[in-house]
Amino acid sequence: SSELTQDPAVSVALGQTVKITCQGDSLRSYYASWYQQKPGQAPVLVMAGKNIRPSGIPDRFSGSSSGSTASLTISGAQAEDEADYYCNCRHSSGDGVVFGGGTKVTVL
Amino acid sequence: QMQLQQRGAGLWRPSETLSLTCTVYGEAFSGYYWSWIRQPPGKGLEWIGEVTHTGNTNYNASLKSRVNISVEKSKSQFSLSLTSVTAADSAVYYCARRFYTSSSFDLWGQGTLVTVSS
Fold first, then answer.
1. Is a pLDDT exceeding 90 seen at residue B51?
2. I need a surface site. Which of A31, A85, A88, A95 has the fewest CB within 10 A?
3. Residue B118: which pLDDT band, with cuts at 50, 70 and 90?
4. Cβ–Cβ of A102/B108 closer than 8 Å?
């Protein structure tokens, strides 16, 4: 299967750490990428491949992967991190990509 | 400055063929996959398909029968055509770029809200 599964929602206290997970068979072969999307805005890439942060993304964002599960960790969550987060990876066939359903992160 | 600029109508009638175009400014056109991604209101992202500068394409299997993505290199543009649209095709449509060997979309268009209604 090329589907990616994410928890619909998680919450984190301000300044604490939250881990968002993404599960799927394709992740055994390909790295996940992660996107942050705030209301009314286009998604923004926050993690590319194996723990690669694009320029301008705070270092409190980190990525990891094990087996069929990829994770995005926000260490010391800030109010501005409240958003929807999506994972994606290459399709198991190697052609195209697939997205997870998204996780809404609430910062309390 | 590198950017993707989308254009196209926001309102389509059922059964029509939706058409959107994305222009690439300030960056090389080769070496990337140029994709279309959509997001129905209140829902998640759905990858539609992609094209290279040479015209090679990949499509989401669930949409493949209705989708065509083409490229016009001389204008640094790529376009989406979606036939026989219904209300279920109403969404914000984004164009985006990813490297050949990566799943990462590092550059996105501004998004176009498409509504299918009679």
1. yes
2. A95
3. very high
4. no
pLDDT one-digit tens code per residue, B68-111: 999 999 999 999 999 999 999 999 999 999 988 889 999 999 99
Residue of A nearest to B111 (CA): A42
Count Cβ neighbours within 10 Å for each residue of A9-28 and write b for 16 or more, e otherwise: ebebeeeeebebbbbbebbe
Q: Tell me how crowded residue B17 is: count the other CB atoms within 10 A of its CB.
A: 12
User: With an 8 Å Cβ cutoff, is A24 touching chain B?
Assistant: no
- Asked if B36 is an interface residue toward chain A (Cβ–Cβ < 8 A), one would say no
Which amino acid, one-letter code, is at A15?
G
Structure token digits, residue B20 = 């959107």
Is A95 close to B102, i.e. CB distance below 8 A? Answer: no
**Nearest residue in B to A43, CA atom:** B108
Give the span between the Cα atoms of B83 and B63, in whole angstroms: 10
For residue A52, what is the DSSP state? B
Considering only CB atoms, B104 lies closest to which of A48, A96, A102, namely A48
Q: Which residue of A has its CA nearest to B41?
A: A40
Strand residues in A1-108 grouped as ranges (E): 5-6, 9-12, 18-23, 33-37, 44-47, 61-66, 69-74, 83-90, 97-99, 103-107
